[in-house]
Design goal:
Blueprint: H1 2-45, H2 51-65, H3 89-94, H4 103-124, H5 130-138, H6 140-148, H7 152-164, H8 169-182, H9 188-195, H10 199-219, H11 228-239, H12 246-252, H13 257-280, H14 284-297, H15 311-317, H16 346-361, H17 363-374
Helix pairs in contact: 1-5, 2-4, 4-6, 4-7, 7-8, 8-10, 9-10, 9-13, 9-14, 12-13, 13-14, 14-15, 14-16
Length: about 375
């Protein structure tokens, strides 16, 4: 009788953790769907869904179809309104098919596509835990990327594919090259491929990036090419101190732009050194993590959706749900999609730093788990 009671008790104890996991899963999924669908719906009702698609990509695509330059003048006030198109031309070329659609339809399709990209990013990294997917959609950087219709989510997928195909020089190089060419701040990932002795992947990435960029410029008749470096400098002058970058943090503290740029260089250099050091030890996970973190640290302009890139090293190091997946949810304390104000500038830097540090501390365990999975 006592033996049977013991079996029943053990069976009951085993069910309790599973039951708690089930409740947590349902709660996270419910919140993720509620937040994403609710905010997207409200944004669409106000005709603001996919802001960048509406006010940057589609106007730039219309300009190309009309035979004009997609880039604003250096003194155009739309640069301060965060409406001007400032990416390399391949991004707007990719949006040309949407230019034939009504703006609301194009914006909705873009938002749906970005939701799909989040799922594909985690799938590419073999994440199977539903709670991780739900947590990812609860991140403010993810929501910001969807509501703004920005390319950050596409870049996250490109990084995930570069990691998945890291031992295939052609595919990894192509994914990384296209990503870097679309957003130059991702260049530290080339340091990672070089430091881990993936020379062919590095060469392929450089060749692919140059080829794609050259072809895109040629497709628009090289419009805006000469003034493009000046446009980027002008954009940095306008937005750097008002963003969530270290330059913005320094400006908020009253330390000035010079101090901010010094911090950018110092932290970025330390992360790149870590990338190389971990690569020499054969620690691919932490080397990659340092490279991704360096892309954020070295950028003079950082918006909340940039931090969605950290989803990739997190999924690599922690493919199953843990409290660490919910840490970026704290970024809802800095929800402004535009210029940061006051203390709102601090949480992204703090949360991002904590996440990176915890991932680097747990790198050995993640590397061991990855090796076991491969075996």
């Amino acid at each position: 009788m006592s033996s049977r009671a013991g079996v029943v008790q053990t069976w009951s104890d085993d069910r309790r953790p599973a039951s708690r996991r089930g409740v947590l899963t349902v709660a996270l999924v419910f919140l993720a769907v509620l937040w994403t669908a609710g905010l997207a719906g409200m944004s669409a009702a106000e005709q603001l869904l996919a802001w960048d698609v509406r006010f940057a990509y589609l106007p730039a695509a219309d300009a190309i179809l009309a035979g004009d330059s997609p880039y604003p003048a250096l003194d155009d006030p739309i640069l301060e309104e965060q409406k001007g198109y400032v990416y390399p031309p391949q991004v707007v070329v990719a949006f040309l098919p949407l230019a034939w659609l009504p703006v609301d339809v194009a914006a909705l399709l873009a938002a749906i596509g970005l939701v799909a990209l989040v799922v594909l990013t985690l799938r590419a990294l073999d994440v199977e835990d539903v709670r991780c997917y739900a947590a990812a959609f609860l991140w403010m950087p993810t929501t910001s990327g969807i509501l703004l219709g920005n390319v950050s989510l596409a870049l996250a997928l490109a990084l995930a594919l570069a990691w998945r195909w890291r031992d295939d020089a052609r595919r990894a190089g192509a994914a990384l090259g296209i990503a870097v060419s679309a957003k130059l701040l991702l260049w530290p990932l080339l340091v990672w491929t070089a430091a881990t002795r993936r020379v062919r992947a590095t060469a392929t990435a450089v060749a692919a990036g140059v080829a794609v960029t050259a072809a895109a410029w040629a497709a628009i008749g090289f419009a805006g090419l000469v003034d493009y470096p000046d446009l980027l400098r002008r954009l940095s002058d306008i937005q750097a101190e008002n963003s969530y970058s270290f330059v913005g943090v320094a400006a908020t503290l009253g330390l000035g732009e010079t101090v901010g740029h010094a911090v950018v260089l110092g932290v970025g250099a330390a992360l790149l050194a870590g990338c190389v050091s971990f690569a020499r030890r054969g620690d691919d996970v932490r080397s990659f993590t340092c490279a991704v973190a360096a892309t954020l640290a070295l950028s003079p302009i950082v918006w909340l959706h940039y931090l969605v890139l950290l989803l990739v090293p997190l999924a690599i190091a922690r493919p199953r749900f843990s409290p660490l997946w919910l840490l970026p949810v704290l970024l809802w304390t800095s929800p402004r999609p535009g210029y940061s104000e006051g203390v709102q500038v601090f949480p992204p830097a703090i949360v991002g730093a904590i996440l990176v540090v915890l991932l680097l501390r747990g790198g050995r365990r993640a590397r061991g788990a990855a090796g076991a999975a491969v075996a």
